[in-house]
Specification:
The chain has about 280 residues and is α/β, with parallel strands linked by helices. Helix content is about 40%, strand content about 15%. The protein has nine helices and eight strands. Helix 1 (about 5-25) packs antiparallel against helix 2 and helix 7 (about 180-205) runs parallel beside helix 9 (about 265-275).
Length: about 280
């Protein structure tokens, strides 16, 4: 346990005892103690947490001192779909000499969509606090089977938090078969790239601001002058049988005009474009 964890545990324990004392004795001293501890816990939670996330690679210097417990990154990013090709250098800077960072977690769920991308899996052998995780729901289309894996020197420690039988036998067999079928998935990724480029051009032509992502989705902002917010836009599309993701809840500052389109087959993308016109 860290010192913060022990402090949280102690405060909650005292708070619990205070509640019991209030129930059985209900005197002014116990009421005051309960209110004081509750306010202290709220203050501690909001004012002693880590700062906001990394905005660009240049901000990585010294992050090991700022983020004393952990750094979590997604590459390629979700919901933007943008890929950072300097992630290896970023992780090495965070965990450099003198760093106090205890854990660096990199989610590479969408990395197989990137042509010639280099995974950080091999870096885990030299970075003892690095965890690289990959869900196979996206790139391998195994979302119904709930399969994922991690590469880390901390694997034994992570096993303590994994419930028994967390992945079914059909899921394991499907995941192994998918990993062996490299050429098939490369062909599918090429199809996704082609269909994404076509959909991106069509949406941009309609006035959408489109992020240049590399995955099987496109994050967009509604055209300027559009009277609808993202939730109303999504509801209007749903009425026509087209399901679009409302992205305003996928980031603290993304705004209420952000939507995310899944890249589908060509004839389905045509229907999406016809719907949003």
């Amino acid at each position: 346990f860290s010192y913060f964890s022990l402090l949280y545990l102690f405060i909650f324990l005292v708070l619990f005892i205070s509640v019991l004392l209030l129930i059985f004795f209900n005197c002014f001293v116990f009421r005051f103690l309960f209110i004081f501890l509750l306010l202290f816990l709220i203050f501690f939670f909001f004012f002693f947490q880590a700062e906001d996330g990394i905005r660009d690679a240049q901000e990585s210097r010294g992050l090991g001192d700022v983020y004393k417990r952990q750094v979590i990154m997604v590459n390629p990013n979700s919901p933007t779909g943008v890929y950072c090709d300097q992630m290896r250098q970023l992780v090495e800077r965070i965990n450099g000499d003198g760093s106090k960072c205890k854990l660096t977690w990199v989610d590479e769920t969408y990395i197989d969509y990137v042509q010639d991308a280099v995974s950080l899996e091999s870096l885990a052998s030299t970075q003892p606090n690095l965890i690289v995780c990959k869900s196979m729901s996206k790139c391998y289309a195994l979302s119904g089977l709930r399969v994922a894996y991690t590469v880390s020197a901390m694997a034994e420690e992570l096993n303590r938090f994994i419930p028994p039988w967390s992945v079914s036998l059909p899921g394991q067999l499907a995941a192994i078969a998918a990993l062996k079928n490299f050429e098939y998935y490369q062909q599918q990724y090429q199809c996704v790239h082609q269909n994404r480029e076509h959909l991106e051009n069509e949406l941009a032509r309609l006035g959408f601001k489109v992020f240049p992502g590399i995955a099987n989705f496109l994050l967009c902002f509604l055209p300027a002058g559009c009277p609808l917010s993202s939730d109303r836009f999504v509801a209007a599309c749903r009425e026509q049988g087209v399901f679009v993701r409302d992205a305003q809840n996928m980031g603290v500052s993304i705004g209420d005009t952000a939507v995310r389109f899944a890249v589908r087959q060509q004839h389905e993308n045509v229907r999406i474009v016809q719907c949003v016109k």
